[in-house]
Amino acid sequence: MKEYTLDCLGEACPVPLMKTEKKINSMEVGDVLVVQIDHSCAMKNVPEWARTQGYNVEIEEVEDGEWEVVIEKTK
Amino acid sequence: MKKIIEKLEKNQYYLAVFKNPFTYITGAVLLSILQIALLASAGNPWGVSGTFTNWAAWIYEALGGSVDKWFYFSSLGAQNTLNAGFLNDPGSIQNVGIIVGALLATLLASQFKFKKIKSFRQVIAAALGGTLMGYGARLAFGCNIGALFSGISSLSFSGWVFGLFLLIGAFIGSKLLARFFM
Predict the structure, then answer these.
(1) Chain A hits for B174, Cβ within 8 Å
(2) Which of B115, B119, B133, B172 to mutate to test the interface with A (most CBs of A within 10 A)?
(3) Which of A19, B20, B74, B93 has the highest Cβ tally under 10 A?
(4) What is the pLDDT, as a whole number, of residue B68?
């Protein structure tokens, strides 16, 4: 099980979601991806997409206006 | 003071109204009610991008230029808006409201942040995207607010046509974005 970090700070929609999809597809089942975002609409659409894929998602607000979306590729 | 803020940050009403994003349904209902109120009070359907064209004309005139002979501003309505000035233009006040309101919302949610520019490529993408959207909105006489949202809510067929081509444009745009800027 590996952990990857995806730096999407300063990126506006839909770039964080597109990068997340691309990265997740290259990962193995069981791997974890931490997406760093500072665009509030990505804080909504990235977790939503991951949940529709059936992955485990957690959102953590690390600073004012900055979040880490932790996605576990469960299948 | 620190105690009050700490308490506020856990208050369920603060979280629901200011902090957590609304659901799409909540947003849609609020937008619908507010745009009806706006149409009733301002007399015109809600629009955003057309007003920016007037702002550009005022800036151009302030720098000594003249748009009197430009076809886009040749109608009596456009001339009246330009002559009446910024403070007498409902659209301008609405757009200032959007900017100030967005700032207020992000401050109240304690999410304000200066974002760093990642690369020169990002600057190019933003400038190019903004130019294409602004130019396209003027050619279509409306953006996704004036032409799509206000069009459809006024039961106009043109809003649906705009929506169809908006989807096609968004599809092509996202392909270009993935191809050149990711």
Answers:
(1) 14, 18
(2) B115
(3) A19
(4) 87
B182 or B32: which leads in pLDDT = B32
CATH dotted code for A3-72:
3.30.110.40
* A19/A56 Cα distance (integer angstroms): 18
- Per-residue pLDDT tens for B91-127? 999 999 999 999 999 999 988 988 888 888 889 988 9
Domain ranges of chain A: 3-72
pLDDT in tens, B77-86: 899 999 999 9
